[in-house]
Amino acid sequence: MSDKVIPLLDQRRIHAVPALPTELVPPTGLLADALGRPLRDLRISVTDRCNFRCSYCMPKQVFDKQYEFLPHSDLLSFEEITRLARVFVAHGVQKLRLTGGEPLLRRHLEALIEMLSEIRTPEGLPLDLTLTTNGSLLARKAASLKTAGLQRVTVSLDGLDDAVFQRMNDVGFPVADVLAGIEAATKAGLGPIKVNMVVKRGVNDQEILPMARYFRGTGIVLRFIEYMDVGATNGWRMDEVLPSSEVLARLRGEFELQPLSASVSGETAERWRYVDGQGEIGLISSVTQAFCGDCNRARLSTEGKLYTCLFAHRGHDLRALVRGGASEAELSGAVGLLWGARADRYSQLRASGATLLGDGERRVEMHYIGG
Q: Whole-angstrom Cα distance, residue 284 to residue 302?
């Protein structure tokens, strides 16, 4: 009988209530961290639940029927999410990405999207409002998401071969239904659409070229992501990482590609275009080519903790401030202090072989704060 893996520490139960500054200074939209990186992107996890059990994120042996997900009362309400989003926008955030778990499992998500779509930057500009999904519910939701104000979607798809993909999602979900969701999103105008493929050596790397052939010329940007050491339950091993350089070599064996410059500051993907004009692909290489230097992303967990790095060990409990009666100025001051003290650069330290401070603690699970 195989042993069941049980997490030793649940980060959801660790509460670190942020300090408030002694002097409340109005936000200027120019907030920078200790390394000079601005705050531009907020990723908001709306649920810790998912209907897939991908081994690199929510392995079934841990997240089984006995696993205790957060009760609804612990989740930030739509009003609380919107209130916090306004605070982050005042500090310079220009892009909101809704994540999970699987965000389309959150009931009435369209109502939240409507609320967030009304937020404007200090300059009066609308936000870039996006969502990442596994695509399982996208076919039925795409039109209503667009109507609510969502602009774009990113869809996770780890292969076109049904047997490979079903082994990856570990719930027997078929590729055809994800592709139907992508088609529905295209028709609804939720573009430009991106498709993310997590590549594991010896598991789905044979799907690299078929995926490239399928999406080439469609206007959909396919991005290959190195298998990352997020969380503590996915059994990550370096020998299962297929470096982006090898992915690129395989692609260039069939297609002529040219590098593109980054479209925005802090972009995670290295961009390449097909020379014949049939679109582009992206390479996200956080294991072998760390991009911490210009990382401008903050993450808000399902129940309101701020994480300043995907590989963080602990979050900062903004929900405690919200539900404790903190004013807008106090919330703004707390966020300013937290981001101003940020010095995270986990991937760079890992790549350099340096000892990672606090690495003896379990890192937060990806499904809990989004990708």
A: 25
Angle in degrees, CA 135, 271, 150, rounded to 5: 35
Determine phi and psi for 324, rounding to 5 degrees.
-90, 5
Side by side, the strands of the sheet bearing 128-133 are 257-260, 270-274, 280-284, 221-226, 194-199, 152-156, 128-133, 95-99, 41-45, 297-300, 305-307, 316-317
Q: Give the pairing type, strands 270-274 and 95-99.
A: unpaired
Residues 257-301 pLDDT 10s = 999 988 777 678 899 999 999 999 999 988 887 778 889 999 999
pLDDT of residue 172: 96
Token look-up 């993450």 returns 299
Give the type of residue at 227. Y
Q: Can you give the pLDDT at residue 250?
A: 98
- pLDDT tens digits along 296-328: 999 999 999 999 988 887 899 999 999 999 999
Angle between helices 78-90 and 109-117 (to 10 degrees): 30
pLDDT at res. 185: 98
Contact (CB, 8 A) for 121 and 127: yes
C-alpha distances in angstroms, 246 versus 212, 241, 253? Answer: 14, 10, 11
- The pLDDT tens digits of the residues spanning 218-247 come to 999 999 999 977 655 566 678 789 999 999
d(CA 206, CA 200): 10
Helix ranges (H only) for 296-345 are 318-323, 328-340
The radius of gyration of the chain from alpha carbons, rounded to an integer in Å, stands at 20
> 259 near 272, Cβ under 8 Å?
yes
